């Protein structure tokens, strides 16, 4: 079995790691942990085109975003291996739009399952901000497991 675990360092991602580790998986299961960071250009279009001293800002922001994301992935690998050392784990840190990158990585990995955490946002928030997990579930060519943090109630949303 081939599983893509998409994480962002949140408590919801940690819950997804715990759920994955607890699954009764067949031997030989491969897990690809991915995390996506958005470059300043994606987050704020036009920043680079303004020129001047912003080029250094862009490079520093991109470097810091990548470094933070790599740390998140390293911690996830450590957590998963502690909980289930039988799994074969690889990683990817990718610059882009999370909704698209998760689907592209799953396709390239030939995943049987994608696991993502759900932030449990209400309908208005999902409409305004979009939902990565919802988009992945709607567009993936394989099964998708959306993990909710236990004990969430309406006031947490």
From TrEMBL:
A Pfam family matched in the record: Usp
Gene3D superfamilies: HUPs
CDD domains recorded: USP-like
InterPro entries assigned: Rossmann-like_a/b/a_fold (IPR014729), Universal_stress_UspA (IPR006015), USP_A (IPR051688), UspA (IPR006016)
Domain UspA, chain residue ranges per copy: 2-148
Superkingdom assignment: Bacteria
Family: Belongs to the universal stress protein A family.
Protein name: Universal stress protein
Source organism phylogeny: Bacteria, Pseudomonadati, Bacteroidota, Flavobacteriia, Flavobacteriales
